[in-house]
From TrEMBL:
It comes from marine sediment metagenome. InterPro entries: ACT-like_dom_sf, ACT_dom, ACT_dom_pair. This is ACT domain-containing protein. Coiled coil: none annotated. Gene3D superfamilies: VC0802-like. It holds the Pfam family ACT_8. PROSITE patterns: ACT (PS51671).
Length: 132
């Protein structure tokens, strides 16, 4: 599986309870988080996440007291095996596609994993990853 989807980038204060507030809103609305990444500084953190119902999440997050930005990304499902990510990275390199960031999560069961790819040229990234 490989598809273009929305990523939500949420700026949070770097203090206790901030992640819980956002993830609880999503959970209560039955929105599943498929992959996430958290990068922090002393004052702030940036939560990036991809969910199974991006349209519903966009509406819900607008009502939360957080700053949210939406970005198009690729969500790809890879086998959870040694070298699977290296193969994907090799394909991006061979087509000279720069991935601005990549993060992942467990996928369906232990056989698969989800990887989120953010790139300036998503069409080129998608074409490079066509046979994964």
């Amino acid at each position: 599986m490989k598809k273009k989807t929305k990523q939500f980038s949420i700026s949070l204060a770097n203090k206790s309870g901030q992640l819980s507030q956002v993830t609880r809103c999503l959970a209560d609305a039955k929105i599943n988080i498929m992959a996430l990444s958290v990068a922090d500084t002393a004052e702030q953190c940036l939560l990036r996440l991809v969910v199974d119902k991006p349209g519903e999440a966009a509406k819900l997050l607008k009502d939360c007291p957080v700053t949210v930005a939406e970005t198009d990304v690729l969500l790809i499902e890879l086998p959870n095996t040694v070298g699977a990510l290296a193969k994907a990275a090799d394909r991006l390199r061979s087509k000279r596609v720069n991935a601005n960031y990549i993060y992942g999560s467990t996928g369906r069961g232990r056989a698969k994993t989800f990887v989120v790819v953010g790139a300036a040229n998503l069409n080129a990234a998608s074409k490079a990853l066509v046979r994964l």
